[in-house]
């Protein structure tokens, strides 16, 4: 009996032990690397990565992933045309046995991490059709198993690393439609084999595409390459080289103006001749050096050693000074004191059409930043006047330099670019931005609306002076502005926190929607990272996803309904007794006999027909089912067609009414 019990116990231990091994067999580093990749994606409109769960120790069932037969390694990542917007996490280089990395047709930003060169088993790298920038890392030349590389249709810059020629199994290389420059590396194909041996002694590795014996398909078109086409690549079709700045007349090349914009001017023949003329002299000098006396050779060695030592000291001193300066670092480095921080490439193209103000210029305009008109945990708002220009409102982000990361910099640029595309009479106008390192500064400069916010007029002004006609004009202006943001922009733009504080009024009380709260998406506090800085304050990072701005259109519609109630009632969204404004108004919205109870008691006159339309629109906006809420296109049309902002005839005979109407626009 005891023997059977013991046997059963052993069997159970084996079974549970086996299960434990299966569950715990997946490398934790790879799971963390995958989650780091997810965290670097800030916009996932198709919710492709929603099932990538940090609590799931086995990622083999996550969308886009394929594992080995033993389900102990990720061997393939395939996420194509999924509209992912974000960055490539360097931790992808830790997925040791990855064979295919396919992220084609997304909206990936930033640089290609050099850590991808660690993927020794990678056979396919497809990052085409994204928005990647910066140079191609030479570390990709370490992908010893790679067969296909596709980096087409990005914004890659710099020279083509000759290390790519070391990839002996590379069969296909797609680099077309980028901004690559320089010559096509090919190991001096005009030299003989003996010449090459003389140039590369000590078993140095030869680099360049002439070493790629397996390369069958390659496309270098529509870049800014100069020089000539290497003879060893002559088997490729001429279309593989068109749209460059090459000397060859056969393929269609860019004109001189286009080439000069990127500094891609072909080398002149005289320059090449001078180089060839100097080579024999160098060889002669080297030959003569071998017959020097021993004492002279020793003197040269001693002198060279001393000069080299001084050079090394100078280099180390320069490095020490450069390290003392804060650099932009990637966000997965938890603390600025950690080693091996990586600089993130900043995309200057994103803001090329946006005005950049100098800090000194903004400081003078804002009277040494003494004129503070607003504040929040993450920002300060100043008022100022540009010299010979308009009044401005300046949002200054409150963040320490050591907490600013490369990701935050790119998010900041994205936010600036997003705000800069707004161009409507009822949307706040971004005039430019300020970005400086010393002192650390990140600012947004808006055109100032001189009449303050709608909230101030509704709750701190005299309600009787804020006439019904004026309120209806503001309602129509807000509706037009939201219709523009939601339906006339691609992608749509939504206000982060749509309320009366987000509506600024001009001299004639025309409303302007200003998304000052958008800074919270940049400076959102992260509980995950707050522990890394102890008691120094909350570290500022972005939330895992920023897709809410483009997806929460229906949320804006709901907020518009609440805002309408606030405008006609004069009540704040939450009353003194903490009763929600919507709950309070609910019983009045659908009953004509009590509908007038919703109107601000400070108002002496209002139009009942307008009130019915407003209540109807509010009822549509606050529908609990977001799918049933109408679009701002429909709501704006409804309000425009049924709201009458003309002066009622019965008010012409009233002297009291004229006093009120005198305040209307």
Strand order of the largest sheet: 2-3-5-7-9-11-13
Determine the structural class based on helices, strands and strand pairing: alpha/beta
Output the number of helix runs. 18
Helix content: 25-40%
**Portion in beta strands:** 5-15%
Flag low-confidence runs.
Answer: 9-24, 188-206, 267-292, 321-345, 525-550, 650-659, 661-665
Reported for the largest beta sheet, the result is: 7 strands, mixed
Rg from C-alpha positions?
A: 33 Å
β-strand number: 21
Give the SSE map.
Elements lengths: L1 H23 L3 H12 L1 E3 L21 E3 L6 E5 L6 E3 L12 E3 L4 E3 L14 E3 L6 E2 L13 E3 L4 E2 L15 E3 L6 E2 L10 H7 L17 E3 L4 E2 L30 H6 L7 H21 L4 H30 L35 H7 L6 E5 L2 E7 L5 E7 L8 H15 L9 E8 L2 E8 L6 H6 L8 H20 L15 E3 L5 E3 L5 H4 L4 H4 L17 H4 L1 H17 L11 H9 L18 H14 L10 H11 L12 H7 L4
Parallel strand pairs: 3-5, 4-6, 5-7, 7-9, 8-10, 9-11, 11-13, 12-14
Antiparallel strand pairs: 1-4, 2-3, 15-16, 16-17, 17-19, 18-19, 20-21
Word description of this protein:
- The structure is a single chain.
- The protein is α/β, with parallel strands linked by helices and 665 residues long.
- The protein contains 18 helices and 21 strands.
- The chain has helices at 2-24, 28-39, 193-199, 256-261, 269-289, 294-323, 359-365, 406-420, 454-459, 468-487, 519-522, 527-530, 548-551, 553-569, 581-589, 608-621, 632-642, 655-661, and strands at residues 41-43, 65-67, 74-78, 85-87, 100-102, 107-109, 124-126, 133-134, 148-150, 155-156, 172-174, 181-182, 217-219, 224-225, 372-376, 379-385, 391-397, 430-437, 440-447, 503-505, 511-513.
- The strands form six sheets. The chain has a seven-stranded mixed β-sheet, with no helix packed on it.
- A hairpin with a 2-residue loop joins strand 18 (430-437) and strand 19 (440-447).
- Helix 14 (553-569) packs antiparallel against helix 16 (608-621).
- Residues 9-24, 188-206, 267-292, 321-345, 525-550, 650-659 and 661-665 have low confidence and may be disordered.
């Amino acid at each position: 009996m005891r023997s059977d019990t013991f046997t059963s116990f052993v069997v159970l231990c084996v079974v549970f032990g086996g299960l434990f091994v299966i569950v715990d067999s997946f490398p934790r580093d790879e799971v963390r690397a995958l989650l780091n990749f997810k965290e670097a994606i800030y916009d996932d409109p198709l919710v492709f990565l929603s099932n990538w769960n940090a609590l799931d120790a086995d990622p083999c069932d996550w969308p886009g992933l394929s594992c080995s037969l033993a389900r102990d390694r990720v061997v393939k990542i395939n996420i194509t045309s999924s509209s992912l917007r974000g960055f490539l996490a360097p931790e992808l280089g830790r997925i040791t046995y990855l064979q295919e990395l396919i992220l084609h047709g997304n909206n990936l930003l930033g640089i290609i991490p050099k850590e991808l060169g660690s993927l020794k088993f990678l056979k396919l790298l497809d990052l085409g059709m994204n928005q990647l920038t910066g140079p191609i890392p030479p570390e990709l030349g370490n992908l010893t198993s790679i067969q296909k590389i596709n980096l087409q249709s990005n914004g890659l810059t710099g020279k083509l690393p000759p290390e790519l020629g070391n990839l002996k199994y590379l069969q296909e290389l797609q680099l077309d439609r980028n901004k690559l420059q320089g010559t096509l590396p090919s190991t001096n194909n005009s030299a003989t084999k003996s010449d090459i041996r003389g140039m590369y002694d000590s078993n140095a590795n030869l680099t360049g595409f002439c070493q790629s014996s397996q390369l069958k398909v390659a496309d270098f078109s529509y870049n800014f390459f100069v020089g000539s086409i290497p003879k060893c690549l002559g088997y490729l079709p001429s279309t593989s080289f068109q749209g460059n700045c090459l000397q060859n007349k056969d393929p269609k090349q860019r004109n001189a103006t286009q080439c000069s914009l990127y500094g891609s001017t072909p080398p002149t023949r005289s320059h090449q001749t001078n180089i060839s003329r100097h080579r024999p002299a160098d060889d002669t000098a080297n030959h003569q050096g071998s017959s020097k006396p021993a004492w002279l050779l020793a003197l040269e060695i001693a002198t060279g050693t001393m000069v080299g030592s001084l050079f090394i000291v100078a280099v180390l001193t320069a490095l020490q000074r450069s390290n003392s300066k804060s650099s932009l670092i990637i966000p997965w480095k938890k603390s600025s004191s950690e080693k091996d921080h990586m600089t993130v490439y900043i995309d200057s193209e994103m803001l090329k059409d946006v005005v950049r103000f100098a800090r000194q210029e903004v400081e003078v305009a804002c009277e040494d930043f003494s004129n503070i008109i607003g504040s929040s945990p993450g920002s300060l708002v100043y008022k100022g006047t540009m010299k010979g220009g308009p009044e401005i409102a300046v949002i200054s982000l409150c963040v320490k330099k050591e907490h600013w990361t490369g990701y935050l910099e790119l998010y900041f640029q994205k936010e600036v670019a997003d705000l800069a595309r707004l161009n409507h009479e009822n949307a706040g106008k971004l005039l430019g931005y300020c970005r400086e390192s010393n002192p650390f500064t990140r600012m947004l400069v808006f055109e100032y609306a001189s009449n303050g916010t709608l909230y101030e007029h509704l709750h701190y002004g005299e309600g009787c002076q804020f006439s019904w006609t004026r309120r209806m004009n503001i309602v129509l202006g807000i509706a037009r502005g939201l219709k523009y943001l939601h339906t006339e922009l691609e992608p749509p733009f939504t206000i982060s926190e749509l309320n009366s504080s987000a509506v600024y009024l001009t001299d004639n009380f025309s409303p302007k929607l200003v998304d000052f709260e958008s800074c919270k998406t940049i400076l959102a506090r992260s509980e995950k990272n707050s522990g890394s800085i102890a008691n120094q304050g909350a570290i500022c990072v972005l939330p895992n996803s920023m897709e809410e701005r483009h997806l929460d259109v229906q949320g804006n519609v709901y907020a518009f309904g609440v805002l309408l109630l606030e405008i006609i009632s004069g009540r704040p969204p939450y009353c003194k007794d903490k009763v929600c404004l919507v709950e309070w108004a609910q019983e009045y919205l659908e009953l004509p006999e009590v509908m007038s109870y919703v109107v601000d008691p400070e108002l002496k006159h209002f139009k009942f027909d307008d009130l019915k339309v407003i209540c109807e629109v509010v009822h549509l906006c606050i529908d609990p089912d977001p799918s049933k809420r109408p679009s701002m296109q429909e709501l704006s049309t409804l309000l425009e067609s049924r709201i009458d902002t003309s002066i009622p005839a019965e008010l012409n005979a009233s002297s009291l009414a004229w006093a009120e109407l005198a305040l209307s626009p």
